[in-house]
Each structure stands twice: as structure tokens, then as C-alpha cells.
Amino acid sequence: MNKNCQCEEVFRKGEKYWRKSKGIVEKTVDSCLGESCINHLDSAVMPSREAVIDLLEIIRDILFPGYFEKRQIGREELPYHIGERMSVLFQKLSDQITKCIVHECRRHSQACQHCIDRGFEVTVEFMNRIPALRELLALDVQAAFDGDPAARSFDEIIFCYPGFQAITVYRIAHELLTLGVPLMPRIMTEQAHGETRSEEHT
């Protein structure tokens, strides 16, 4: 039997077994439409987990310039670097925050007014908080350095310590939570917990 014959035999067998599975699609659809079924039909588009996790990387680059880029960042380049990162952050963060707000609105059948405007407003307010967030994280770095005799530098703590990475994410998530952003803070904190096994409370 040549190769083509084998392929035809596999195809015929596949068809035979698929015919036996008649009704699977209908049964599955019916199970999704039942009163006890959990689904996300006729609702707003969910925010993207991948996009939210990517946002953490962008925010981290802004909070700690020069640490995580693949090239050296000089003082002269800093305004351009921060400006470029902030521009990207504004576009991506406003998109995901708006999706979170619209989703919450539709999911709970609330009156959905000005969701898009609210998404942009919250994004700008979060970005305005970044300098203060940097100062707070600087205190966290100092505390970690003072509390760990094995720590040799601030760079070590920022770049290497999983606990500090988790604190950074929880600080970001807390700011978004206080601004009333639904869902996104939870995505961020669960991601941090999964990566570092560190528990914090926002």
C-alpha cells in the first residue's frame, strides 16, 4: 500500500468516527445556553491578559529606566526614552482600561455612559501618579537593602529579587484599583503571584 492509500484510509476512518459523534455540537451548544451554564455571551470584549502583562513590562521600563532595556540609556536620551515609553503606555493602557470598564458595565447591566472617556481619564491619572510611585518604590528598595545583609547593591534588588518584582506589580495594581479599574489589578497580581509565589494585598 502506497502512502496515498494510507492517507485515504485514515480519512475514511476519521469520517466514520466523526459520523458517530453526530449531535456533539448541538449538545455542547445546549449545555452552554442552560441557566446553570457559565458563559460570556452577548457581553463586551474581555481585556487581553497578554496585553496587560505586556503593560507591566512597559511600566517597569518607565519606573526603572536603564535596568531592563537591551541598550544603554544615557541621561541625554532619557527624555526621548521616557516620552516614547509613555506614548506607547498611553495607547495600550487606555485600550485595556476601557475594555475593563466597558466589560464591567455590560456584565452587570449598568448604564454605560462615557466609558471611553473614563478609560482615557483614568489612564492619564495613573500616568500622573508614576513619579510618586517611583518615590515609593525607591523606599521599598532601600528597605529591602537595609533588611538583607546579603544584598550588595540596589541594582541587585531591582534586577534580581523576585519579592521586589512582586512588590512593584502590587504597587501598580493598587494604584489602578484605587482609580476604580476593574479586573486589570487582579490580572496583574495573579500574574505576579504565579511568577514569584509572593503574596501581597492591594
What this model shows, in words?
This protein has 202 residues and is mostly helical. Helices cover 70% and strands 0% of the residues. The protein is built from nine helices and no strands. The protein has helices spanning 3-20, 24-33, 49-63, 78-107, 115-128, 130-147, 154-160, 162-178, 184-196. Helix 3 (49-63) crosses helix 9.
Oligomer: single chain
Largest sheet features: none
Q: What's the helix count?
A: 9
N- and C-termini, Cα separation: 66 Å
**Stretches where pLDDT falls below 50 for ≥5 residues?**
none
Secondary structure elements and pairings:
Layout: H1 3-20, H2 24-33, H3 49-63, H4 78-107, H5 115-128, H6 130-147, H7 154-160, H8 162-178, H9 184-196
Helix pairs in contact: 3-4, 3-9, 4-5, 6-8, 8-9
Describe what is shown at a glance.
The chain is mostly helical. It is built from 9 helices and no strands.
List keywords for this structure.
202 residues, mainly alpha, 9 helices, extended
